[in-house]
Every structure is written in C-alpha cells, then in structure tokens.
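Students often ask why inverse folding is considered easier than folding. One informal answer: many sequences map to the same fold, so there is more than one right answer. In these notes we will look at a single instance of the problem. The structure comes first.
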C-alpha cells in the first residue's frame, strides 16, 4: 500500500507546523522549479520509507526541508559560515556543498526542528557520510531518484532502492564521482569518504 503524501498528518513530535504549513514555509524560500523538485523528493522518500521501515513522517519532513537553504545568497551563507566559525573549507566548494549543513542549521533555527536524525538527513543529503541512518540513506537516495530526475543510470538506482537501500547508496555515490571526474570538478573530501565506506568497502 502506497501512502498518499497529501494525507500525511504530522504528530507535532518533530515540528510544530502542519504539513501544509511546512510546505508554505519551504515554498517561501525557493523557486517554483526547486519547489517541484522538493515535492518529488518527498514522494520518493515516503515510498522508500515505507519499503524500508522508516518513519514516514520523518521522511516527509526531511524531504520537504532538505533544500531549505539551497537558494540563499552566497553572501548570506558566507557570513553565516564565518559568524558561526564553521568549516571554512566549504567556501572553496560553494552552495552545492554548504547548503546541506547550513540548511540543517537554518531549519533548526527558523522552523524549530531539532530531531537529530532529520537534521543529519538534511546535512548529508548531497555528499553522504561514512555512517548514515536509514532516514539519511532514504533522503540521500530520494534526492537522486525523485520523479523529475532523468539521466543515464537513474532507473537502475530506482530499481535498486526499492529492494536494497545500501546498494542504491553505493551506486549513487559511484555515479556521482564518475560525473565529477568527467567534468573535472573539485571533489569534496567527504564525498571520497562516503565512496570509501559505501562502495570500496561496503
């Protein structure tokens, strides 16, 4: 049985807002295109959560908020990194790297979400981590396979994810590295750490 995401009712255990109120809060921070992506990630995350015994409510909340800081200005994010004495290495990589951990920080401050599992899922949804809870794995993979994604290999990850979430994490991580190398992009060290754990030493 597949959950209708529009019928999900939050318990107020993780966030004081209703799902619709959380959607409105997120929508106010991002473009319409990004918002459609976020809704797609929620859909994929809830399906994965159902398949792998993860809280649907936590999956919904983490998915809706995972890109909360994605479109904040570089100036604001750089000032936040400096003011909070965070990892200055993030400045070398830009929004693609810092929007996860800074998003977790802002989601906690601005939306009052303090559940560590949800915050870590937001924090690690782009580069992953050596250790990831099932929820973190769900959001990491859902961001990659949401219905709006269309690129070589995405169907294979969708198939894998339905049965073997860890295998999907490994495959996605490997494909991401292939992409970065092919495009001659800088590779954030924690991406390598994720690869070493989930691919080279599964």
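Output (designed amino acids):
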């Amino acid at each position: 049985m597949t959950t209708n995401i529009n019928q999900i009712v939050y318990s107020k255990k993780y966030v004081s807002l209703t799902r619709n109120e959380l959607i409105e809060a997120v929508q106010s921070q991002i473009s319409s295109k990004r918002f459609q992506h976020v809704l797609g990630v929620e859909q994929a995350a809830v399906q994965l959560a159902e398949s792998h015994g993860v809280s649907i409510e936590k999956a919904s909340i983490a998915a809706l908020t995972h890109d909360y800081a994605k479109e904040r200005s570089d100036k604001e994010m750089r000032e936040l990194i400096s003011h909070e004495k965070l990892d200055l290495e993030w400045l070398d990589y830009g929004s693609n790297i810092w929007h996860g951990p800074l998003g977790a920080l802002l989601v906690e401050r601005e939306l009052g979400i303090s559940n560590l599992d949800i915050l870590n899922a937001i924090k690690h949804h782009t580069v992953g981590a050596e250790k990831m809870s099932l929820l973190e794995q769900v959001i990491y993979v859902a961001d990659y396979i949401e219905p709006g994604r269309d690129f070589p290999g995405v169907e294979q990850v969708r198939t894998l994810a339905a049965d073997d979430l860890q295998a999907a994490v490994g495959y996605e991580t490997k494909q991401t590295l292939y992409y970065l190398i092919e495009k001659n992009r800088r590779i954030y060290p924690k991406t390598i750490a994720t690869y070493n754990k989930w691919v080279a030493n599964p």
